[in-house]
Design brief:
Elements (H helix, E strand, L loop, with lengths): L1 E2 L2 E2 L1 E7 L4 E8 L8 H15 L4 E7 L3 H9 L3 E7 L5 E8 L1
Parallel strand pairs: 4-5
Antiparallel strand pairs: 1-2, 3-4, 5-7, 6-7
């Protein structure tokens, strides 16, 4: 992710099926709390829609309160809670595009 000609983070899309994709967003610490994660997820959603995906998912650590609030604000729903291989509690968010 680039903002004002500066790299501020990373975004990713991972195809699971022909209709389902997952997103990942990381905004580097100095650039957080400026709306860039929201902007990034909206960009990812537009790209996913353009390529015909119908569902987008996101995996968020249970302790990442800011990301949980962000995904809820962007109308993702909690689909499942689980414990990862590293024994961290995770939430799987899902949204129909």
């Amino acid at each position: 992710m680039v903002e004002n000609r500066q790299i501020v983070g990373m975004i990713s899309l991972y195809q699971h099926t022909s209709t389902v994709v997952s997103e990942g967003v990381e905004i580097f610490k100095p650039f957080r709390n400026k709306g860039l994660a929201t902007k990034s997820i909206l960009l990812i959603q537009n790209i996913a829609k353009f390529y015909g995906y119908k569902v987008i998912t996101a995996q968020v650590a249970r302790k990442n309160i800011a990301s949980i609030k962000l995904h809820k604000k962007l109308e993702f729903e909690i689909y499942h809670e689980f414990i990862s291989l590293k024994e961290n509690r995770q939430l799987l968010f899902i949204k129909t595009l």
